[in-house]
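Instructor's aside before we start: the two examples that follow are unrelated to each other. I chose them only because their records fit on one page, so don't look for a connection. First example below.
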Amino acid sequence: MTYVSSSIDLSFESSAAESSTAIRTDPRVMMFRQLPRWIQPFLTWLTARPAPGEAAPARSPRAFVLAALTWTLGGIAAGVVALHLPPSAGAAVLALGLLMTTCGLGLFQVVVFHHCAHGTVFRDRVRNRQVGRLISAVLVFKHFDTYQREHMLHHSPRKLLTDEDEFADFVFAMCHLRPGLVKRELWRRVLRNLFSPGFHARFLYRRVRASLASPDRAHNSLGITVWAGAAAVSVLGGFPAAFLLLWVLPVTVLLQMATVFRILCEHRFPPPVLIAARGKEFVCRATAGVFPGLHPPVQGVRSWAGAGRWAAWWLNMLTIQLFVRLFVLVGDAPCHDFHHRRPATRRWTSYIHARQQDMDAGCPGFPLNYQESWGLFRAIDENLATLAATPPGVVL
């Protein structure tokens, strides 16, 4: 496959496309074959998979910072507009605004905060640390220094899926999932948590304690001052309900719901022998790409049946899959497996094409190539199945 760095150009070389489609048989290739070229860039973003022969657009880390700010502030602005519209129209605009705000907060969490911990957003270590600390104080994330230290352990094969791993701590201690439970029971606990006030209160308490009750008094003071000041302005300005609805709700409950889905699709539990070995195959088996989308219909639109199938496919792509991309699988979250194999790379800004290039090259340095799931809920179901198949006591 031929990839050429460019600004926003998307080229489709016929020879490259033919060789790629001969190798790839995933839904994205089918979309490329059956849909016009002008819609391919949108499908690349939506599915987080490139079309065969597609050039990688150049994008800087700061573009992700700008995107996070734009989605967050745009969502708040849409929410403000919604509150001044008639209820019939206002409800739809409000829902869109909350989705946009949660998307922006997810980008801050998954992309900016996370890659600052890897030192790959800004050129110097000090700036990455400053921005990371600011985000953790304002958005009530774990103190950046603590998060950075624990996250580096998470990337160690010797610590992944142990009691020192942040992922395992969230799955077991926060979500109360357990190895060996039947998959149906694991799903029941997940769904119960999502709509449980007690779960969200406990989740928020952990966040507040890790962020605003850290050993760093200056950090705590900044976060408390920002939140107290915002609350005071909303009360004095006469809009406390709007503040709670448009800002507090997305930062707490909505972001926490998105976090549950996102974390549960990030890692699966390999066979016990691989967990014990903790080698590169363990890393390969413990992560998989998760891509929003599904196979397009094979049948054309010239028949009523074909037109109906295509209408249903587009409805799914522009509702469920688009929602998943904006609410859960934000930024480079779909390519989390690429991040675990190449955690220090600065090519994460072109994550869609960088992962594909690495996969086409056979993922040098690893015994297995990439694995993937299409669809968020299918990915979570597969991951929970591996947890159900894991004997108690093997992981921790």
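Example two begins here.
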Amino acid sequence: MSERNKKSGNKKPSRTSGDRGKGFSKSSKKPFVKGEQRFKKAKGDPLPSMSDEVRLNKFIANAGICSRREADVLIESGIVEVNGKIITEMGYKVKPGDEVKYDGSTIQTEKKRYVLLNKPKDFITTMNDEYGRRTVLQLVKNSCKERIYPVGRLDRNTTGVLLFTNDGDLAKKLTHPRYEVKKIYHVEVDRPIDVEQIKALHAGVDLDDGDFVKVDKAEIIPDTRNREVGVEIHSGKNRVVRRMFEAVGYKVTRLDRVKFAGLTKKDLPRGTWRHLTAKEVDFLRMG
């Protein structure tokens, strides 16, 4: 059961700059709405791993044996069996309930899992850390028995939406530059920012490594003394938001990702997780 199911009480949640941003609103005059909503129980069960036929090489790859290309080599070599029959045919499809063996051992398939975390500060996005620092995997360790991985990274001091899955195909899609997956960040800087710097972010800046990048959209959040900015971007470069603001002369003091590929942290308190719904998973696959 999700760790979200704790009673939040009747007290009004305190407002912090790290939790105010929700995203750009199409219907509101204010482009960036402040205030994170109170926690409510959300529905959504993990999905089964396979409901239709799937290519044999993908089946093997999804089981974590090897890549699809390497699976083709295994199939050609004659060491893969389906229901007791050696298969060497490229493009052969496995049906639900089929028994697949590799080198005499049955391949155990995993259910596909999709877990969304509202990441807190001081956790690093890695599987393990040689220095003993806390990792995001510790926060989602009770979400499922399958081994899941973070999709992309958030640095140690960045908070917000972080997706975990064991669906390698979807993870690659969400991180590949070709798909231009949108992210929205709530950014707080060390001093007031003006419209000229916002224009510069739209026009594009050169990062410290020489890469040129620009935001898709950036707007100063009202009533924040020009210290907070809503930023929409599709670039997946390392620490790109912090580096962009550094390029226009500002230091980011708080950074919160409030939206990733259409997923938000609505009703998800900091440090807690939930499973995606079937509808959300379908949306990610179709996007």
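DSSP finds seven helices and 17 strands in the chain.
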